[in-house]
Amino acid sequence: MIVYRLGAGCDLSDIEEGKVYQAKVQGFATFGMFAQMNDRIKGLVHKSNVKAEHKERDPILVRVRQIRPNGNIDLEEVVIQVYQVQTVDRKSTTVSIADLTNKVGKTVAIEGEIAQIKQTSGPTIFTIVDETGTQNAAAFIEAGVRAYRKPSLTIL
């Protein structure tokens, strides 16, 4: 049996109903538990489809029962003793800043220079420049946590 592992760039369009994926328990509710398949995708395992007791961050295997039109994912826990893991990776397309408006909702890569980094009380704001223009991008981890590390400086 094949079990799929979603790469970091995968989104909802990369999963399929009926297939089994690796996940981690993300949290619990009275109606079931949430399972995270990667940083972008999580679904709900209804309490009637939970096979064992778990704690947060436990690895589990889940079958995608249904992907609803609103993007919610219904999962069921499965127990498989012997399986092979196949990674699903999405290659991001490199685009210029001038073409970003045509790529809203898509995963893309930008090749450019970071011209400025501004730490705010919320997200860190990056100004990115390429040969076609300038674009601001925001990164946020959590309150008080920098979205980048300051480079170290060695004075000789």
Structure characterization notes:
- The protein is mainly β.
- Helix content is 0%, strand content 46%.
- The strands form four sheets. Strands 2-3-4-6-5 form a five-stranded mixed beta barrel.
- The radius of gyration is 20 Å and the shape is elongated.
- It starts with a strand and ends in a 17-residue tail after the last strand.
- 12% of the residues are buried.
- Residues 150-156 have low confidence and may be disordered.
Helix fraction, binned, reads: under 10%
* β-strand number: 12
Classify the secondary structure makeup into a structural class: mainly beta
String of helices and strands:
EEEEEEEEEEEE
User: What's the total helix number?
Assistant: 0
Rg, rounded, reads 20 Å
- Mean pLDDT, rounded to whole units? 87
Largest sheet: 5 strands, mixed, barrel
List the strand order in the largest sheet.
Answer: 2-3-4-6-5
The shape is elongated
Regions with pLDDT < 50 over 5+ consecutive residues? Answer: 150-156
Strand content: over 45%
Euclidean distance between termini CA atoms: 58 Å
Layout of helices and strands, plus pairs?
Blueprint: E1 2-6, E2 20-29, E3 32-36, E4 42-46, E5 59-67, E6 73-78, E7 84-88, E8 93-95, E9 108-110, E10 113-119, E11 124-130, E12 133-139
Parallel strand pairs: 1-7, 4-6, 8-9
Antiparallel strand pairs: 2-3, 2-5, 3-4, 5-6, 10-11, 11-12
